[in-house]
Write a structure and sequence with these properties.
about 210 residues; alpha+beta; 6-stranded antiparallel β-sheet; 6 helices
């Protein structure tokens, strides 16, 4: 990552354009460790393999690179998952533990980066011929323009509440349940009434 004053990014571009050999998995690890990680670290994220966490008060922003099950020794395909872990909603299957960080799957509010970019899933491809600097630029730019703003707007209790209420008509059905739980704790009661009306409207429309 090199935009917006971010430090780090891939090593010198001339060493990454066409002359980086080795297994494709090794190149993928280099993308995560040497290209994406330095910029995210400068922004306050911690890394565990291909998952990055940043604490916002008691809550967590999560970025996760997920490899396709169809990746092989000659081709790695991956997508980027985003999640927001809200401490006050840390219960049941979404409880990541007192001293731990949530996986993206333990975040009640999740998006694929591609959904924010173009409205559908996006997968990136990495082979021996891929220029890592170019791939880093594409993923970093997508995170900067779409992923990081989405996370920062939703990583506080009040920010998440306000964003979801502003987008109520497009909130996923299961997220309405989580939003209602948040509003029950956080208020205001009038907003909780709005969510319940939206749930009833959808139930009627689907019936």
């Amino acid at each position: 990552m090199r935009r917006s004053g971010w430090r780090g990014g891939c090593p010198a571009t001339r060493r990454l354009r066409g002359d980086v050999s080795g297994p494709v998995q090794q190149r993928y690890d280099q993308l995560v460790r040497s290209c994406l990680w330095p910029g995210l670290k400068a922004l306050g994220f911690k890394r565990s393999k291909a998952t990055f966490h940043r604490a916002v008060g008691p809550n967590w922003e999560v970025i996760n690179l997920q490899k396709s099950a169809y990746s092989d020794s000659a081709h790695v395909r991956f997508t980027v998952n985003l999640g927001v872990g809200i401490e006050r909603l840390r219960t049941g299957r979404w409880d990541w533990g007192e001293t731990k960080r949530p996986s993206v799957g333990q975040c009640r509010f999740q998006r694929r980066l591609g959904q924010l970019m173009v409205g559908e899933d996006v997968w990136w491809d990495l082979t021996e011929e891929t220029e890592l600097a170019t791939l880093d630029e594409a993923v970093s730019l997508a995170l900067e323009r779409y992923g990081l703003p989405w996370l920062s707007e939703r990583s506080t209790d009040e920010g998440l509440r306000d964003q979801m209420l502003a987008e109520l008509a497009s909130v996923y059905d299961h997220e309405l349940v989580f939003l209602a739980e948040l509003l029950d704790q956080l208020g205001p009661p009038s907003a909780l009434d709005d969510v319940k009306r939206e749930q009833a409207r959808r139930t009627t429309a689907s019936g």
